[in-house]
Amino acid sequence: MTKINVRAKGLPPYGKSRLGSQTSIWPLVKALFLDYDGTISPVDSARSESAVTPENMAALNRVSTQIPVAVITNKDLDFVVKRTPFAVAWAGLAGLEIKTADGITIVDGLESKIAGITAALEYAKSLSGCGLEVEEKHTSDGTTVAFSVDWRRAKNRSYARRDSARNRATQILSYCENSALVTYLYWKQPFFDVFPCAISKGKALLTLKQTLGLSNGIAYMGDSKTDNPAFDVADLAIGVLHKETFPNLRYDFSVNFPDVPAFLNSLPENGFQVNQNSQFVVKSRLRGRRPKT
Predict the structure, then answer these.
(1) What is the CATH number of domain 31-108+199-269?
(2) How do beta strands 133-138 and 144-150 pair?
(3) Is the pLDDT of residue 188 over 60?
(4) Which residue from 204, 201, 205, 227 is spatially nearest to 218, judged by alpha carbons?
(5) Beta bridge partners of 95
C-alpha cells in the first residue's frame, strides 16, 4: 500500500511552534480527521440541503494541500464523499464502510447482521409523513444497512402535528429496541439512528490511521456523543460547540462552530501547531481529559 507523506515540508518538529521556541503540550497536527454534521456543516440542515459551509470548504481545501484530511461520519459514503472533496479517506456509517485510494472495504460479517433492518425500515416508513422522515443508509453496492428517523420538519407545524411526529418516532424507537437493533439518540436532536450492530468512531479512526500509514499527530474534531470514542484515541481532541453540542464531550479543548473556519486556517499559518492562547480556543467548561504529551 502506498503510504501518504504526513510530514508537510518545512513543518517544525513535534511539539515546537514557529511562533517561538517554547515547547507546547499540544502535539503537532499531522493529520486532521473530522465529523460531518455539526462540525463542518450546520447541524440543523435537512439531508437534501446539507453541505459543508463555504468558509469551511475553503479552509479545508487549504489544509488538505499539506496534511491528510479524513471524514468519519454516521452518514453513508454516497452522501458524504461528494460533499467533502478535500478528504483522502472516509469512514461512512461510523466505520462500517471505509473508502480510501485503495478502494472500499466493509466490516466483516455486516451482511449477516442486517436481517432486522428491513422489517424495521418498513415499519418506520409506515409511520412516516406529516413532519416525520425516514432516511435510508446504504453501503456502496446499494444495500440498506441502517436508517435515521427525523422529525425536525415537524417543528414548524401545529402543536398537534409536532406531538404526533414525536409519538410516532417513539413508536419506531421502541420497535427497533425490541428487535435487538442498535439505536443512537443525540442530545437535543430531533432524530435518531438505527444500526444493525454497535458502531465506534474510535475503531474507525484507528482503521483509517493504519490504512493511511499514520503514526501520530492525529487531530479529531466532533460535536456529539458518538465522537467520544474517536476523541479517546486521537492525539488531539477538539470539540465543536453550538447550541446542540453534547454536554459531556471528552475533548482537550473546544472551538465555537462559527470560529471553525478561522481555526482551520490558523493551522497552516502556525505550522500546524495549535496555539493554546489563540482567540479561537475555548477553555473547556465541560468534563474533558488531560492532553497527551
Answers:
(1) 3.40.50.1000
(2) antiparallel
(3) yes
(4) 205
(5) none
Edge-to-edge order in the sheet of strand 133-138: 133-138, 144-150, 191-195, 182-185
Look at strands 89-92 and 69-72 and give their pairing.
Answer: parallel
- Chain segment 202-252, per-residue pLDDT in tens: 999 999 999 999 999 999 999 999 999 999 999 999 999 998 899 889 999
Domain with CATH 3.40.50.1000 in the chain: 31-108+199-269
Q: How far apart are CA 190 and CA 44, in angstroms?
A: 9
DSSP string, 227-242: GHHHHHHSSEEEEEE-
Diameter of the chain by CA atoms?
Answer: 63
Q: What angle do CA 242, 244, 249 make, to 5 degrees?
A: 80
Would you state the cell numbers that stand for residue 107, as one nine-digit string? 466490516
Which amino acid appears at position 214 of this protein? Answer: L
Residue 202 · residue 13 · CB < 8 Å: no
290 contacts 253 by C-beta, under 8 angstroms: no
**DSSP codes joined into one string, 150-207:** E-GGGGGS-HHHHHHHHHHHHHHHHHHHHTT-EEEE-TT-SEEEEESS---HHHHHHH
pTM for the model stands at 0.86
At 155, list the grid cell.
417543528
Sort strands 236-241 and 253-256 into parallel, antiparallel or unpaired: parallel
